[in-house]
Amino acid sequence: MNGLMQCITKPGVVWFYGGLGDTLLIIGVITAAMGLTLGGFAPVYWFLLAFACYLGMLWAVAMRILDRIESTT
Known about the structure:
Blueprint: H1 2-8, H2 11-34, H3 43-72
Helix pairs in contact: 2-3
């Protein structure tokens, strides 16, 4: 568990999830506007993947807060 906690509390994880979520959201908007499916994914799937990345970003921030609270006590 400590290894997972060390990986998720790095600042780059938040940037990774945020950037990936933005990219997936843009792909979803473009595919919805053009009426396309890329790789068998309809636009709604791209939006759901973007939402999952944003949840991962919030999870990483929550873990950083938890790590900070645990380290001060």
